[in-house]
Amino acid sequence: MKANRSNAELLHKTGGELLFIGYTSEQTQGTRGIAINLNETNREYAGEIKKLNSEEPFVDSGLIDTVISDIPMVEWIYERDGFRFVEFFFRADTYNIRIAFWAKPDLFSNFLPVYEDMAGSIIIN
Length: 125
Hints:
Blueprint: H1 2-13, E1 16-23, E2 29-36, H2 42-53, E3 59-68, E4 71-80, E5 83-92, E6 95-103, H3 105-120
């Protein structure tokens, strides 16, 4: 999609990289991974992203500190633009990583455990 290319180019200009993006064929679910070398804590990075998103109205659960597969993360669940999102923020050395999953609200609750399992499959060497 052209919008994804524009977002990837914008990320690159600011020092970030779009690692991956994908959607189900019916576009009711999606995922995205972003890395940027900011060397910030998980909470600092998640807070900056939340603040950037606060320009548009949305409902959110707040930032939750968690540990998934021995990796400290911040988990954030929010709803906007007709989708529910869960994002996982963590670090790999000096890189801040942001993994997001989203789904239509009627699907989200059933798939949240799957998204958390996928976040739990991450291995940092």
